[in-house]
Amino acid sequence: MGFHLPLIFALLSLAAVALANHAAQPAPQLYWNSVLPNTQMPRAISELLLPGSTNEEKSTNIMSAVGNGKPTDHKGKPENIPLSNVLYNNVYDPPTDNQLHYKNIAIFFLEKDMRPGATTNFQFARNSNTATFLPRESAQSIPFSSNKLLEIFNHFSVKPTSVEAKTIKQTIEECEAPGIKGEEKYCATSLESMVDFSTSKLRTRNVQAISTEVLEKGATMSMHKYTTMPGLNKLAGDKVVVCHKQNYPYAVFYCHAIKSTVAYVLSLKGDDGVKVKAVAICHLDTSEWNPKHLAFQILKVKPGKIPICHFLPTDHIVWVPNHKSA
């Protein structure tokens, strides 16, 4: 039997292309493909995978982003306050002065308000925190502990008295702080560790990972009125894992598994025509929240009386079981 050389060459070429594509993929993406082959990667994760540059380049280049948010402007008013600090503040504590800055913005809403035609004012700002993922091995080689702050500062060439150093210190302290009642928390310093934590808490690898996405190009840095369109989708399960990005030289996500919580995906359309695929989280049991929590001030309700919901910013990821495994 003769050899079909053209066919053999074609197969070898395809194999070479496949190997080249495999080699070009960053290690975190390879791990995702291996562990979660049937799970689509959300934009909040895929935009943090940048093959082709070295890990040190990635870490160094984003230090300006770590320190670019000043806590106050020249008039002393809150500025660049992370929304995650409002959404995931210790629910036993009253809101801080900075968090009260959001009091007149529709951060929190009721579950019954997620209906077609409902309108809300919100700002789905694109993620300006562009620090990318390190492979797990690289991340594990760098200290991540309040006991090793000087070593961390030296690694990233950060002065201990700088704004960047303060931001690094705050992020580590938040990660080391104990979780609230009913919360299982973990700070993932790599995509691989985020995948492992989320799938272990959901007890399945058959999961969905979803983030809020602004579907049109361009920034949405100002407030807009959004109308809820038909097609509300309630995701599976009453336990979700939510991961939100921290300010750090490389991608670090604060993840927590929250009981008595459900997730929705909504289609929104802004008054500027921009469409948003928005992820909303609803907390079904708020009975132990501080009565002065910002959510109760905005919604004029009392703890434990009714589910309270909020949108997820674009740099958050919600993990839920697939319907087939729920």
From TrEMBL:
<dbReference type="Pfam" id="PF03181">
    <property type="entry name" value="BURP"/>
</dbReference>
<feature type="domain" description="BURP">
    <location>
        <begin position="108"/>
        <end position="322"/>
    </location>
</feature>
<keyword id="KW-0732">Signal</keyword>
<feature type="signal peptide">
    <location>
        <begin position="1"/>
        <end position="20"/>
    </location>
</feature>
<dbReference type="InterPro" id="IPR004873">
    <property type="entry name" value="BURP_dom"/>
</dbReference>
<protein>
    <submittedName>
        <fullName>BURP domain protein RD22-like</fullName>
    </submittedName>
</protein>
<dbReference type="InterPro" id="IPR044816">
    <property type="entry name" value="BURP"/>
</dbReference>
